[in-house]
C-alpha cells in the first residue's frame, strides 16, 4: 500500500507487523506541537467519534477508544455483563475463548462455548438449545452473544445472517456484540453486504479495529445504546485501559476515517489476499474455509504446511485428522508487491504433479 | 525542548498533553517500513531491554514493556501478590489508592494505606506498626510495599531513605516496588542521589515511565528478580495489556535510551519547572511541598488557586483547612519558552502588596 | 441460659464457642424425620422469612438465609455494588476492613475507610468530606455505607444517629447497610431505642445474626427493597454460599423467632455481661468504650491484660500508647452462672490497692 | 436407615432433603454444653482430621472442613491454581462447569471442558489432545484435572482408571482433584475397588462429602500434599467459607467416622438404590448409565418421565433426541422402607405391555 518493506524475509504472519501507515504517523507528529486534553477528552477523539456516529447512523451512540483487541473485548463484555452471574455465549473458536488467556474469566465472567463449523459462525439454531438449558440459579444467566466480523476463520456474516442473529438475540433478551478487530476488512470484502449502518441497527455493540487496519494501535468501541455504556470511563480506568494520551488514538481514527484511508487500507489488504488466493488455486491447492477477507486458510500436507509456516511466519490454525494442515496467510497494509509475488511463486513452484498428487484426502 | 506549541492557551496541567518528542515519532515512522515480530518479541524490545538491564546493573532482570501507568502497577502488583490473600502497603496518597479507580481491588487485592506527611513518603517507622498488626488468617498478609519516585507530591526519596525502606522490607519478608511514572524526572533532579543501579540493587521491581517522559505511550517494567516475573507474559495477555505492535514501545525506549534523549527530556522538564519556581518565590508565594522534580505544588488563596487552575489547566491537589489551596503545575517536554514566561509573569503580576498580604495564614 | 458447661476453664472469648441452644437443636432433630425442599426453598425458610418481614414492617422485603457473617457481608455488598467501580464506605474499625481477610477486595470492590473514635461509629459529619472527594472516573464511586449494630466496639447507634445516617445516605444517593452479626444483643440492650421496624424503615439492608445468638450457624439477610436483591440466589450459589439443607437455617430462625427465644438469648447475654461490668466497676477498673451490649472492653495494665486473656481466652483489642490494654470480654447463651462468678471474682481479687494504684494513666 | 419420614409424598429428589442422621444431631447437642475453640481450631476437628489422615494413609495431609460442595470445589481449585492464568480441565458434565453458576470463573479461573460419554468420565485419551493445544501466553495454562467420584452420572472410576489418570496428570505436571460430594457412596459401591488409601496415593486432593452422607452440612477437604494447602485458612476466610462454630463440622465427622456410621449410611443409600433398580429391571425399563452408587438414571418415555418427576420430585437429567428422558432417582439416609416400596410399585405398575411396548427406540 505504500513503498517497500526492507526486511530479511517476507511475512504473512499477521496484519500487525508494521507500525502504521505513514499518513497516520504524520497525523501523530502534528500532535507533538499541539496541547490536548488527556484521557480521550480531546477534540480529535470527539471528531472521530462523531464521524463514527454518522457512519453507523447512531447519533446517540457512545464511542470509547481503546488500545487493543483483548482490552476492547473485556471492556465491552464487562459493560454488557454488569452482574457476575451473567455470561457470554460464543463460538468455540471465538477469540475470547481461545486466544485471550482467560481474560473474560479473569474478569469474573463465564464464556459459554458452542461448537461451530469451519466457517466459525454462530446461528440462532446453534445457540437456541444451549441457551434453553440455562434455567435456574444453579447456572449462569446468558446475557450476551459474541461474534467476530470477520470471524477468526476469515469469513463474514451476511446481512441476512446478522439480522437473524440480531432478531434471535433481542427476542430472547440477549445482547449482540461484534468483535471488529478486522471489521475494516469485512466491510470492504467483495462478498460483503453489511454496512456500518446495518451494524448500528442490528448490534448493541461492535468495534472498528485500528491495530490491524494501519493504525499504531487503537480500536473504536461503539455502544449503540448509550445506557449500556453507563460509567464506561470508570470501567476503562479501573481495568488499566485508559490511555493518558488518548488524543493520539482519536487523531489516528479521525485521520483514517475522514480521508477514507481506513477503508482504502482494508481494501488493499483484501485485494492483496485475493491475488494470493488466485495463485493458490492455480497451483491446485484447496482452501480450508471460504476466502472472503484478508485471511486465507490454505490446506496443505503437513510437511508443506510446516515449510509455508517457516518461510512466511504463517500460523498453523489446525492439524486435521486426515493429515492436512490448515495454514493461515494474512495480508496487511504493509504487504508489498514483492511479497505477494514471492508467496504466489512459492505455491506455483509446489504445484508440480508430485506434490499435488500426494495431497492427502484428495 | 523542541519548537513551539500552537495552542490557544498554555497548559501546565500535566506531562502528557503532547503526543511525543519528534525524534521518538521519527523512530516509529521507520517501523512502518520494517516487519517485526508482534507482541514485544522483537529485536527493538530486546535491545531496549538490554540497555535497561545494563543501566540498572541487573543482567538477569526481566523487562516488560507496557502501555500505561495503571496497567503497569496492576501488572507488577499481580506478579508480586500471586495469592489473593496477599496485600500491598502504600501511602494514603499513593496513586494506586487514590487515582486508579480501585484497579488493585478489581484485581482482587487489598491496599493497606498509611497516612503520610505532605512529602507523600513512606518510612520504616510509618510502616512497622501497621505491618505488625497483621497476624492471623482473619487478616490479609502484607507482602509488598509500593512507593512512587518521584512521589505524587513531586518529592523524591534519597538514597538513604530508599536504603532504609529496602532493608526494612527485606528483613520482614516484604518486597519493594517503585512506581516510576516520573522516574526520569526523579533521576535527573538536582537533589537526587539515587541511580538506576541503586534502584536495581534496592528494589524488587520498578518502572521507567515513558508516557510522561516524551514517548507516545509505554512504560518499561523491571523485575530485578526474574523469578517474580514467572509467566509474566500470561498475566500481560490475560489482563488485556499485551500490545500487538509491541515493537513500537521497544523502539521508542531503544531510541530514547541509546541516544540519552530519555534523560535530556527529564532534565528539560525539571529545569523548566525550576524557572517557574524561581518566579513563584520572587513573587513571594510559598510551596506546599519541597520542589524537586517537574511537579510544583504552590500554595495560593482559594480565589487565586481557582484562577491559576482556570488559566493553565492546573490540578487542585488540596483545599487546606486554612483556606489556601495547593495547586499543581507540571512541565513537560512540550513546555515552551513562551509558556514558562507566561506563567512566570502571572505570578509576578499577582505579587502586588495587596495579594501577598492577604495570603491566608501568613 | 441453660444448664452448665463442662469445660476445663471458663471462656469469655466470644459468643460462638458452644454449638447452639438445646431448643434449637431439638428443632433440627425434627427435620431428620421430615423431607424438605433443598436450597432454602422450603416451608420453614418461608415461615421464618415471613416472621422477619412482619417484625421489620416490610412485607415486600427479600430475605436470604446464609451461613455466616463474612459470607453475608460479601453477599450484601455484591448485591448493592453491582458494578466493579462502585465502593463501600466503612469505619476503619469495620469488620469488613479489619477481620475478613480482604473478602470485599477479593470480590473486586474497594472499601473506603474512615477513622472513627473509640465508639466505632460513623456519622454524616465523618462521611461527608470523604464522600465529596470522589469526583471523577479516576476514582471509585461510593455507593454504600456499611455500619455494624452493635459495632465492633460493643456500642450501638441510637435511633437519632441511625436516622441521621439514613437521611444523609439517601440524600446523597448512597445505600445504608447494617451488619447485624450481633443485632439481637443490640436490640435487647437497655440503652437501645432502635426497633426492627426502625431498621426496616431506615436501612436498605441489614441482617439478624444467628451464629452469635444461639443458632448452630446462619444469618438472616434482609433487603428492604427487593429490587436490590435482584437475582440474589444466583449470587448466593456462585459465591459458594448456598446451603444444600437450607431448611435447617430456616427452621432454626423459625423456632427462635416464633417462640421469642432469639430475643431471650440476646437479653441473657446482655444481662450476664452487665453483671460482669458491675464487678469490674466495683474493682475500680475502667472501660475502654461505653458498655451497652454483650461485649465489654476493659482497660487493664498490659500484664493484667495478658493474664485476663490467658485465663479466659479474651481477645486483646488494642495496646494503647499509655501502656494500658483494651481487652474484650464476651458473653454468650452458653455463659454459666459459675463462669460469671469466676470472672467477677478475678476482678475483685485484682482490686487490691497495689494494682489499682499502678493503673497506668490514672 | 432410621425410623420413618412423615411427609406428604415420598421424595427421591436428592440425598440432602433431611437434616441429618439422628446420631449426628446427638453429637451436636453435646457441643451445646461444651466450650470449643472457634474457626475449626478445636479438638473435634483435630480428631476427625487424624482419623481421615489415617484412613487415607497420609499422616502429613492437610484437612480443611468446609460447609458445602461448591465452596469446597472453589477452595480446592483456588489452592491448586494460585495464578490467574492457570486453568482446570473437567468433563463437560462436571459439576463445576454445569451447576455452580460460574463459581470458578467468579474466582477468576477458566474451566476447560471436554465432551465425555454418558458415564461422565474423563480419560487420559480424552484429555491429551486438549491439553496439548495450550502452548503460548495467548492461552491459559492447564494445571489441574477435576473429576468426581462418584460422577454426576452416578458412575465410579475403577482403580485402574484412576491410576491411569493419576499417572497421566503427574507425568504432565498436572494435579488431580476428586470432587467427593458422594465419595461415601462411591467407596461403598459393590463394583468399587478404590480405597481411601488409593485416593491418598493417587490424588493431590479430594473431599469426603458430609452433606449428602447424613451430616447436617460439611465436607472434609484433603490435600495429600500439605504444600498445596499453603495459607489455606486465609483462603477459607477470604472467600467467606470459614465456619465460626467449625467444631460442629469436626464433631460430626469425628462421630461419623469413628463409629463407622459414615460408611453405614453410604452402604444403606446404595442398597436402597439397588432395590429400586431391581424393580426397574423387573418392570422392563432400561437405565441411561450403569448403576453403581446411590444415583439411578432411568430411561423413560417423556410422558412417563414427567410423571416420575412429578410424583417423586426427580430431576430430569437429559431429554434425549430419541424422545426418551433420563430421569434421576437418588436415595438418602432418610429413605424409608415405605418409600422404596412405593417407587418400586410405581415401576411395576407401569410395566404393563402397553407402556413398555411404546418405549421409544426399543
User: Largest inter-chain interface?
Assistant: A-B, 60 and 60 residues
Could you say how many structural domains of chain A there are in total?
2
Can you tell me the overall shape of chain A?
A: globular
Beta-sheet strand percentage of chain A? Answer: 15-25%
Q: Calculate Rg of chain A over CA atoms.
A: 21 Å
Give the total of beta strands of chain A: 11
Helix content range of the residues of chain A, please?
40-55%
CATH class assignment of the largest domain in chain A: Alpha Beta
Task: Write a structural description.
- The structure is a homotetramer of 362-residue chains.
- The first copy, chain A, is an alpha/beta fold and 362 residues long.
- The first copy, chain A, has 2 domains: 238 residues, 3-Layer(aba) Sandwich (Aspartate Aminotransferase, domain 2); 96 residues, Alpha-Beta Complex (Aspartate Aminotransferase, domain 1).
- The first copy, chain A, contains 15 helices and 11 strands.
- Chain A has a 7-stranded mixed beta sheet with strand order 1-7-6-5-4-2-3, with helices on both faces. In chain A, strands 8-9-11-10 form a 4-stranded antiparallel beta sheet.
- In chain A, strand 10 and strand 11 form a beta hairpin.
- In chain A, helix 1 crosses helix 11, helix 2 crosses helix 11 and helix 12 runs parallel beside helix 14.
- The longest helix of chain A has 22 residues.
- The mean pLDDT of chain A is 95.
- Chains in contact: A-B, A-C, A-D, B-C, B-D, C-D.
- At the B-C interface, helix 5 and strand 3 of B face helix 5 and strand 3 of C.
Can you describe this structure in just a few lines?
By secondary structure, the first copy, chain A, is of the alpha/beta class. Chain A contains 15 helices and eleven strands.
